[in-house]
Amino acid sequence: MSLLEPGPHALASLVTPDPGAIVSRKVLAEAGGRVVCFAFGEGEGLTEHTTPFEAMLVIVEGSARVSIGGGSWEVGAGELIALPAGIPHSVHALSPVRLVLVMIKA
Questions:
Q1: Could you tell me the pTM of the whole model?
Q2: Which of 5, 87, 99, 105 has the smallest set of CB atoms within 10 Å of its CB?
Q3: Would you list the domain boundaries of the chain?
Q4: Which segments of the chain does DSSP mark as H helices, in order?
Q5: Rounded Cα gap, residues 43 and 28, in angstroms
Q6: Which secondary structure element, helix H or strand E, spans residue 106, and what is its range?
Q7: What span, in angstroms and rounded, lies between the C-alpha atoms of 69 and 35?
Q8: What's the pLDDT tens digit per position in 72-105?
Q9: What is the architecture, at CATH level 2, of domain 33-104?
Q10: Which residues contact 16 (CB under 8 A, 6 or more apart)?
Q11: Residue 64 bridge partners (DSSP)
Q12: Which residues lie below 8 Å from residue 26, measured CB to CB, with a gap of 6+?
């Protein structure tokens, strides 16, 4: 179920980076997956964790260091990176960053 009204939405209007914080807003939630918009203040991040399903990060603005299974990449605006199921990963904002997380459960 979409949690947004029909029509276009600027990501900047959904989540705004806040120094010292991580802001999130779920925009789609279905049994088979969900889509969440995030804004990280510079230096903020998600510590290493695993998920039992496939996911993808799409960086809309700013840049982040994404570590996956021992590898590490700087991912910037306009780029995406896959997060395989069961592989440890973390995200660290190198600047204020807005991103979209797409999770596929089925």
A1: 0.90
A2: 5
A3: 33-104
A4: 11-14
A5: 27
A6: none
A7: 23
A8: 999 999 999 999 999 999 999 999 999 999 999 9
A9: Sandwich (2.60)
A10: 23, 39
A11: 75, 93
A12: 3, 34, 35, 36
Give the three-class secondary structure for 89: strand
Residue entry with tokens 């603005």: 61
Instruction: With cut-offs at 50, 70 and 90, classify the pLDDT of residue 41.
Output: very high
Question: Whole-angstrom Cα distance, residue 2 to residue 16?
Answer: 20
Which residues are registered as beta bridge partners of 72? 67
- Enumerate residues 6+ apart whose C-beta is below 8 A from 28: 1, 2, 3, 4, 34, 35
The single-letter code of the amino acid at 69 is G
User: Per residue in 43-76, pLDDT tens?
Assistant: 999 999 999 999 999 999 999 999 999 999 999 9
